[in-house]
Amino acid sequence: ACGGDDNEDTGNNEEGQEESENDSGDSGSESASDVEYEEQEWEFVTEELKGQVQYEYAAEFADRIKEKTNGKITVTPYEYGALGSEVDQAQLLQDGGVQMAVMSPGFTGGQVPDGQIFSLHYFFPADPKLTQEVLNTSEALNKDLRAKYEEHSISPLAFWSEGSMAWTSNVGIEKPSDWEGLNMRVQESPLMKKTYDAYGASVQSLSWGELYTALDRETVDAQENPVFFIESASFHEVQDTLTISRHNNYIAMTTVNTEWYNGLGDAEKQLIDETVEEMQSWVFEEQKKQNDAGLEAIKNDSEYDTKIIELTDEQIAEFKKVAEPVHEYYKNEVEGIDPAIYDKLKKEIEEVSGE
Amino acid sequence: MIRFGGRKKVNKVKSVFNKVDRAFMKLEEFLLSFSIILISIMIVGNVFARELFDSGAFYFAYEVSKFAIIITTFLGISYVARKGRHISMSAFYDFAPMKVRKVMMIIINLVTAAVMFVLAYYTYGFVMAEYESNAITTSLQLPRYLMYIFLPIGFFVTGVQFLRNTFVNFTKKAKDKVYLGTDAVDYNDEKDKEVKLEDISSV
Amino acid sequence: MLATLLSIMIVFLFLNFPMMIPLILGPLLVMFIYNGDKLDLLMNTFMKQLLTGIESPVLLCVPLFIFAADIMTAGKTSQRLLDFVGSFIGHIRGGYAVTTAASCTMFGAISGSTQATVVAIGRPMRERLLKNGYKDSSAMALIINSSDVALLIPPSIGMIIYALAAGQGVSVGDLFIAGIIPGLIVFLAFAIYSIIYAKVKNLPLAPKASWKERFHFFKKALLPLGFPVLIVGGIYQGWFTPVEASGISVLYALILEVLIFRTIPFTRIPKIALSTGLVTSAVFILVAGGQMFTWVLGYARIPQQITEAVLGTDPSQLYVLAIVSIFFFIGCMFVDPIVVILILTPIFVPAAQSAGIDLIHLGIIITFQAALGSATPPFGVDIFTASAVFKKPYLEVIKSTPPYIAMLLVIGVLLILFPQLSLALIN
Ligand code: NA
Ligand code: NA
Predict the structure, then answer these.
(1) Closest CA–CA distance from residue B57 to any residue of chain A (Å)
(2) How far away, in angstroms, is C286 Cα from ligand 2 center?
């Protein structure tokens, strides 16, 4: 019910792609100089540490808001861990204990099962630029999925990628059959089981704290993460190969508490929307910078050799063939998801990637 | 009850109460013991499934273990209270004479009971919020509140237990002793009893 | 706010309230006093911390290592180790004391629990020590301090908790390996002290065991000695993770005591599990409360302020390690080591990282200080355990501890000055 107004906003965003210069030009400077904001403090939690993409996003967002409001509105970013687990942070946002959060749909899977759509393999375009375009323009995401989240008082204002996921292993994964018999460490949901079953790998649950040692001692054989994350967790030290597989993206959402956001004045709403929109291109560059730097660091690590495998289009097509039946499984079998969102998004993706 | 029933009826009520109490204690003991054994089976089972069969068959191992840990912790604290085994910094208390210790123990148990009821109240609110969110767990896809419901239950039962720990110190059998819990005489008043590993509550 | 919080906690702590009360009530009152206007927005997440604290899968090893130790303590494993060690070194000057220290070290290598070591090795060895002219206070001081080596020798519950609290990138396996040399140094120091002490006091010698006897005891101890080999070997081979090793310990203990030695009837296992469950509950409610404490601090952004206030902006490595040592040492003199490690580690890890300190090295320093603090008067938890187990007044228990504390302090300084002592085996 409360989604009405917000949907119009995202409607604007869709057209905003071409018009963005106008938006951030005219109205941006207007809001900065002419509007008198009341003094406010917003708290912004993230799931990552200082220096990592999500935290840097929140810090940059805070800077921009400070500048636009002449310091009247301060945004305080929180590192991961200060306020409990990811699930705790989501709860805090839902209750209004903080106003803003970057969260990944994976950690709200318990409440909005549709968030699992981002973990499907080879569903979004393999090209990160195209994926970002889908994320920016999709109505299925920015309107329909957003409405699902708003039932839980979470308003996702934007979806963005922290980079394509990559696989690390000692085997060197180049084709689906390379997965045969491997133990893959990944979130132990039924969908993930099905996904890796399709390649012939088995899914192992293992705590994050033990993953490095477990990879080192080959207790498990593989893991997946964005490249910048693999580098900062030093997984390349204990793995022989890294496959740039682009099987899906590590998606983050910029979210606000729905009731809080709806209760804001028009000026504040506009300020937030406009800054979130500007940030989309900023964060795309930021994640690219960090992932490129991570990849360079892994390549240049003279102590630990890591073979980098970049899948060709043909290899990706091969994986896609194996992964696609699991998309159907998601649509038909996964508990609690809305197949209509799946269908709509699938169509939007096809339009963007021109298939 | 006492006025009309006389001594016999009081005894009967008492013995029914005792039976319920013992049955409840047996249930607590079973759950504690069972949870620890269950965790062992899950962790060992997961290792064997993975190492011998390359199988993810025990993918639920950590989630089941989490259930067991929550049950152990929050249903265990009332049993720990009954046995007077909560970890405390007793250095000053131990030096105090019996009368002072008794007053302290009465106040400690009463205040602790109050805190437990407050926690039961707030964790109940938290479980209700969880119930309304319809959230499910990752592996077993069970409603998440089922995991959390043990908190308010555990705190409430523990609150009751600490009340009983308070009152036991007013009874006849506590005339020349201090009771740490309904089943636990203060070790300061029981110097001769052999202490076993089972009597130590730290790692 | 921090002052209010700590005052509330200390008052309730000193009044002998169950430790969960200061840990939970302190943060709860702070919520009411400082965030009263936002209580309905924060309360659910705040309460959820009770779960967040205990839901990490890494913590599963705590009940399992305790369970394994409980099974072995109920059975004959510790006795076999004692006989084996005694037959080789029992006859030397100070042999009873050296045997105690060595057996504690060895039992530490199969158990992650300090308290279990006090009971399993301490109780039988104290009798032998007393019979052979040792004063009770020196016997107890030796037992308490030697048992704490269990925290340094793998497997170690303290190290696993540290790895959990320190967060990403800290390998429990590396920590385990890194603890071996420091653990052996402590053992050596205690052994040398024991020999000198026995010389000075002219304590009687034990008869020397024949090689036949030694072989006999060695054979009997062979399977228990397989424990550390299996645990460290299995982790190294990748058969199981350090946390899973705790489950394998339980399995191995059951096989030894129930099937092979037949010292425990299978029907007694639930009873032992009950006692493990009780200790787990008593400890985990503190871990749960500790997370509430951490959360309240995090919400008020206190850790950043503390590290800046205590450490300044660009502290040297030595300075950070010294401060860390002091905080953990003092903390563990008052509160259970698990709680101290959980609460203080996240506060100091960022500072240590920016000073370029190896997190494995930091973990060894922290574990060491936790062991030292919990054996140190006035309130180290081990003193009260020993007081309860041995039925001796507090003052007698602590009377002979100063030389041990002095030795440990010196070793503590050495560990800070020479990171190689922790890191050599890993590299
Ligand atoms: Na590598
Ligand atoms: Na140990």
Answers:
(1) 9
(2) 21
**Beta bridge partners of residue A313, listed in sequence order:** none
pLDDT digits (tens, 9 = 90+) for B114-125: 999 999 999 999
Residue A69 confidence (pLDDT): 95
State whether the Cα torsion A177-A178-A180-A185 is positive or negative: negative
What's the rounded mean pLDDT across residues B40-46?
Answer: 97
Angle at C7 between CA C6 and CA C13, to 5 degrees: 85
Asked if C235 reaches chain B (Cβ–Cβ under 8 Å), the answer is no
Which range among A17-21, B147-151, C87-91 shows the weakest confidence by mean pLDDT? A17-21
Which of B25, B32, B34, B36 is the mutation pick for testing C, counting most C CBs within 10 A?
Answer: B36
CB of B115 within 8 Å of any CB in chain A?
no
Average pLDDT, chain C: 89
Find the distance separating the first CA and the last CA of chain A, reported in whole Å.
Answer: 35
Is the Cβ pair B73, C281 closer than 8 Å? yes
DSSP string, B164-175: HHHHHTTSGGGS
Cα separation, A28 vs A197, in Å, equals 50
Selecting from A95, A189, A335 the residue whose C-beta is nearest the C-beta of B139 gives A189
Whole-prediction pTM value? 0.88
- In this complex, is the C-beta atom of C356 within 8 Å of any C-beta atom belonging to chain B? no
The total number of structural domains in chain C stands at 1
Question: Any CB–CB contact under 8 A between C356 and chain A?
Answer: no
Q: C44 CB contacts (<8 Å, ≥6 apart)?
A: A91, A95, B125, B126, B129
Q: Which domain holds residue C268?
A: 2-423
Report which secondary-structure segment, H or E, holds C332: helix C317-334
In this prediction, residue A17 carries a pLDDT of 38
Most confident of B39-43, B127-131, C118-122, C175-179: B39-43
Closest ligand to C-alpha of residue C112 is 2
Task: List alpha helices for B55-180, DSSP H.
Answer: 61-82, 91-95, 98-133, 145-148, 150-168
User: Closest-lying ligand to the alpha carbon of A236?
Assistant: 1
Per the DSSP assignment, residues forming a β-bridge with C228 are none
Kindly determine whether residue B47 and residue C278, on different chains, have CB atoms separated by under 8 Å. no
- Crossing angle of helices C337-354 and C317-334, in 10° steps, is 170
Classify strands A40-45 and A249-257 as parallel, antiparallel or unpaired: unpaired
Is the CB of residue A188 less than 8 Å from the CB of residue B62? yes
SS3 B60: coil
ipTM: 0.87
Per-residue pLDDT, A19:
39
CB A233 within 8 Å of CB C169: yes
pLDDT tens for residues C344-374? 887 888 888 888 899 999 999 999 998 888 8
CA A166 to centroid of ligand 1, rounded, Å: 14
Mean pLDDT of C30-42: 92
Could you say which of B46, B112, B126 has the minimum Cβ distance to residue C21? B112
pLDDT tier, B195 (very low <50, low <70, confident <90, very high otherwise): low
Q: Which residues of chain A have pLDDT under 70?
A: 1-34, 355
Place of tokens 């402590």: C186
The pLDDT of residue B24 is 93
Chain A residues closer than 8 Å to C289 by CB: none
pLDDT at A20 (0 to 100):
40
Instruction: Decide: helix, strand or coil at residue C250.
Output: helix
Ligand nearest to C-alpha A170: 1
- What Cα–Cα distance (Å) separates residue C196 from each residue in A103, A140, C406? 62, 79, 16
C-alpha–C-alpha distance, residues A187 and A207, integer Å: 10
Q: Cβ A91–C44 below 8 Å, yes or no? A: yes
Give the CA-trace dihedral at B47, B53, B54, B56, to 10 degrees.
-70
Nearest chain C alpha carbon to B42: C247
% of chain B at pLDDT higher than 70: 90
Could you identify the residue written with the tokens 């400690």? Answer: B108
